[in-house]
Give the backbone structure.
Amino acid sequence: MLIANAIVTRDLTLALRRRSRVLQPLIFTLICVSLFPLALGAEVNLMKRIAPGVFWVIALLSTQLTLENLFQSDYEDGSLEQWLLAPYSLPLLIATKVLAHWLISALPLILMAPLIGVLLGMSAPIIYALMLTLLLGTPVLSLVGAIGAALTVTQRRGGVLLSLLVLPLYIPVLIFATTALEQAAAGLSYAPHLYLLGALATLALTLAPFAAAAALRIALE
Amino acid sequence: MFNLLHRLSSPPSFFAFAGRALPWLLGGALLLIAAGCYQGLVVAPADYQQGDSYRIMFVHVPSAWMSLFIYMVMAAAGAIALVWRIKLAEVIASASAPIGASFTFLTLVTGALWGKPMWGAWWVWDARLTSELILLFLYLGYMGLESAIPDKRSAARATAILALVGSVNIPIIHFSVEWWNTLHQGATVTKLGAPSIHPSMLLPLLLMAVGFKLFYFANLLVRARCQMLEREQRSHWVSTLIKEAA
Amino acid sequence: MDSFLHMGGYAFYVWTSYALALVVLSLNWILPRRALHKRWHALLRREQSSTGKAA
């Protein structure tokens, strides 16, 4: 656990030192969200209908943008190879790495959700539901993304390939989250959707670190 | 049995075996497909609801089955390649990908051609078509990753992981898309659900399905032979083979 | 025969589907076949030129 703590602290410190890396995905999200009313017209009913979908699609894209950095700098400075030799379990190291990534990239997004919700004309209960779906859904995005990032870590410009690999796998999360928000907007219970998202998160948490570990070993062979 | 498999999995004996099996597989495939076309286009009566357009089913449904089947083959071969590092399994997985992708493509296009007269639109976001489209993305991702890694052996291992992750995901994707579809479209698209199948329609369907499967195996053998030659071009057995031929 | 080709008014859809299936299957057959042939002959040529040098 000590090592996990050390990794998270190190990554957070690095992120705080290079604040632009944390801020840029947020700004990207903000800009993308504001493009939609400009493109479609800011009619209130339309906004209400498309807002959850728009927000979630952009959340997928911005997570995917930050994924490239997940192992890249560690690969370049050689610390990734040290990991393979280290006497710790690699899946555990990856899980902590993903946790740090989630804290840096997804948590700010969740905290910013109310602001964006207001911009898109969401009401308070919907914003609450949005934050719940993000809380359960973004860990899946980070975990599944870690597999893709591990597979493409040696690629110099792996960004597009990474999105090709990872975005199709994100579709279930997108569907469950946005249908939950639709139910919420209709005033219906969305608990089943949250359970499904929770199930996906559990599944991803148990399997993805192992898959990503295997992928990293292959990439660095 | 295991011994036989073991011997077969060595590149030279596979190469020879593939050469011998090829004409039989291809012949069988062509025969079955021809029979299936005859049964499907000529013998089977027109559907009372869909008229003659339902005959597209005899291409569409078997290729949809193949698209899933081939992905499962890739995942299984990938798992074998990861665990036992058998070259043949690596080659089978990588040679399957383009065939699977082309069956997926065929499914999508024939789906559109069937959809136009039935739904009045080339593309409808029907659950099955949507899952098939996502499957095409998975195939493209697989092939993209494979071509991005220059070393064949590590490419095979990396894509094996991707195929395994994909095969865990396919049921989830399928379930989520079905769920999404029932929420959004209701009962408008149930028309395409298999029209309670008459035996005269089942026969061509099965003929085509088995024919496509044999075609896949034949095609796989050609592609696998080609990849074997490429990967093993410096090995002893290839040079003896070439010397004999020269 | 005419009514067979006509396919109850769905001729375009039915025949395009079958034609596309034919195209996809034959491409799948011809391209790898060609690649195999090419590789085989490249290896043969390499062999012949190397033995030629040795002799």
User: Anything to note?
Assistant: The longest helix of chain B spans residues 152-185. Helices of chain B lie at 2-8, 11-43, 57-84, 87-119, 127-148, 152-185, 199-231, 236-245. Chain B has one domain: 21-245.
